[in-house]
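Progress report, Aim 2. The chain analyzed during this reporting quarter is listed below.
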Amino acid sequence: MVSANQHCPIPRVADRFTNIYKPGPSLYTLPTATTPDGNITYTQGTVYPEWRTNDHTFIKGPDGRWHCFGITKPWVSGDNGHSGEGLCFHAVAPAGTLTEAVAFQAWQDLPKIQVGDCGWAPAGFDLGNEYALVGSHLGLAVSPDLHTWEERGKLAVKGGNRDPYILRLDGQYVMLRCENNGINAVVSDDFLNWSDPIRIYQPEVESYHTESPVLIPYAGLFYLFWTLWDTADPSTAGYCPRTYVHCSESPLDFLGCPVLAEITVHAPEIIQSEDGRWFISTTDHPYRGIGMAPLVWE
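Predicted structure tokens for the chain:
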């Protein structure tokens, strides 16, 4: 935990968001699905003109381009739930650095992926000799090039039930996952054998549930970002653009750390470009698809 008198640089969105990727019309290939209230049906074999995105991840590929993968489903007004999910979108940036790729709808919409459970909040990672996507149910898919994927079963990880985030830190892999209204972490040396879960954060408000955690080392400190789902407030379900930030000296202990900042984004990723600049992404807010803006630390 950071002491009360220690200064933590505060992350701040430095400019407006650019809508880098908007999904185009696409065929819905999953089995027909209906929302719990029975009002909306997603029909297999139907081409839907608009799609929405949710939790996503970025990987720089062997082609030197940035790739983005994440949850996607047809956009139908009135449905903010998870019915119809299971496909994973794949968008690729134009050639150049990440800074150069932050341009209006410049990312190409590639065929959707249906492998493992990467359609549910995938975490992407470069393992050195291949690339990995890990979904909320711990399904592992690997690829040599980010285009051809192979299922590798499920990771043997205890605790948590959704929204993985993976970070390489001091020679180990650290995986964050949400569980009810808290965030757990597990650690591995080889990406196969994982430690018992450690509860690293718990909101003080009982109705606050955590979504989409991100762990970032910066300036000798660690920053935890998470998106709010308040079970006492139905308006926060699905696509709430409210993300909290905490700072700690330890990547595995944010218990009791106060809110350092609140950012109006949903399910963000924090990425550093090749030129050292930082960016924050957001999904479905303020634009449908994926948006990105510069992030500064002050």
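The CA atoms of residues 112 and 228 lie 28 Å apart. DSSP finds one helix and 25 strands in the chain. These observations will guide the mutagenesis work planned for the next reporting period.
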